[in-house]
């Protein structure tokens, strides 16, 4: 299975950014852990991070024909982006939405996601381990 992992704005700062909220793990740590799990599950991973909404839309569009499933942490765009939602609806590939922090224990504006109702599953508040859990779930779904 080919899995595209799409990371949104400010996730490049994981490990330095609000460590009390997001923990000490970096995005590179999350990727490394997923690469290990991907080997175990015989998955092929492509890892993308951008601070720009259009780049994320392009990455999702590019998944058509090059990936079988996605893991999406759209970060702040989760709560704002109709464009990203439309891209995910257009490619119509299964995806798991991940949030490192427990968005439901945070600001009210983080309780709504433009993506969740399209997702196969949503993992929140499990730290960077959420990415591995998402990968295992997608592999189980086949
Ligand atoms: C986040 C949660 C979002 O609300 C926030 O804007 C982020 C990261 C998370 O992984 O916990 O940047 O998606």
Automatic annotation (TrEMBL):
<dbReference type="GO" id="GO:0009423">
    <property type="term" value="P:chorismate biosynthetic process"/>
</dbReference>
<dbReference type="InterPro" id="IPR036441">
    <property type="entry name" value="DHquinase_II_sf"/>
</dbReference>
<dbReference type="GO" id="GO:0009073">
    <property type="term" value="P:aromatic amino acid family biosynthetic process"/>
</dbReference>
<comment type="subunit">
    <text>Homododecamer.</text>
</comment>
<feature type="binding site">
    <location>
        <position position="79"/>
    </location>
    <ligand>
        <name>substrate</name>
    </ligand>
</feature>
<dbReference type="GO" id="GO:0019631">
    <property type="term" value="P:quinate catabolic process"/>
</dbReference>
<comment type="similarity">
    <text>Belongs to the type-II 3-dehydroquinase family.</text>
</comment>
<feature type="binding site">
    <location>
        <position position="86"/>
    </location>
    <ligand>
        <name>substrate</name>
    </ligand>
</feature>
<feature type="active site" description="Proton donor">
    <location>
        <position position="99"/>
    </location>
</feature>
<dbReference type="InterPro" id="IPR001874">
    <property type="entry name" value="DHquinase_II"/>
</dbReference>
<dbReference type="GO" id="GO:0008652">
    <property type="term" value="P:amino acid biosynthetic process"/>
</dbReference>
<keyword id="KW-0028">Amino-acid biosynthesis</keyword>
<feature type="active site" description="Proton acceptor">
    <location>
        <position position="22"/>
    </location>
</feature>
<dbReference type="InterPro" id="IPR018509">
    <property type="entry name" value="DHquinase_II_CS"/>
</dbReference>
<keyword id="KW-0057">Aromatic amino acid biosynthesis</keyword>
<comment type="function">
    <text>Catalyzes a trans-dehydration via an enolate intermediate.</text>
</comment>
<feature type="binding site">
    <location>
        <position position="73"/>
    </location>
    <ligand>
        <name>substrate</name>
    </ligand>
</feature>
<feature type="binding site">
    <location>
        <begin position="100"/>
        <end position="101"/>
    </location>
    <ligand>
        <name>substrate</name>
    </ligand>
</feature>
<feature type="site" description="Transition state stabilizer">
    <location>
        <position position="17"/>
    </location>
</feature>
<feature type="binding site">
    <location>
        <position position="110"/>
    </location>
    <ligand>
        <name>substrate</name>
    </ligand>
</feature>
<protein>
    <recommendedName>
        <fullName>3-dehydroquinate dehydratase</fullName>
        <ecNumber>4.2.1.10</ecNumber>
    </recommendedName>
</protein>
<dbReference type="GO" id="GO:0003855">
    <property type="term" value="F:3-dehydroquinate dehydratase activity"/>
</dbReference>
<keyword id="KW-0456">Lyase</keyword>
<dbReference type="Pfam" id="PF01220">
    <property type="entry name" value="DHquinase_II"/>
</dbReference>
<comment type="pathway">
    <text>Metabolic intermediate biosynthesis; chorismate biosynthesis; chorismate from D-erythrose 4-phosphate and phosphoenolpyruvate: step 3/7.</text>
</comment>
């Amino acid at each position: 299975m080919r899995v595209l992992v799409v990371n949104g704005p400010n996730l490049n700062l994981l490990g330095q950014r609000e460590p009390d909220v997001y923990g000490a793990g970096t995005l590179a740590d999350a990727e490394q852990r997923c690469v290990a799990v991907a080997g175990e599950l015989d998955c092929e991973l492509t890892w993308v991070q951008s601070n720009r909404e259009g780049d994320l839309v392009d990455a999702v569009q590019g998944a058509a024909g090059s990936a079988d499933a996605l893991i999406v942490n759209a970060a702040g765009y989760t709560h704002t982006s109709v464009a990203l939602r439309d891209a995910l609806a257009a490619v119509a590939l299964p995806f798991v939405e991940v949030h490192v922090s427990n968005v439901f224990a945070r600001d009210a504006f983080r309780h709504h996601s433009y993506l969740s109702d399209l997702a196969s599953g949503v993992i929140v508040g499990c730290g960077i381990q959420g990415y591995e859990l998402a990968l295992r779930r997608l592999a189980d779904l086949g």
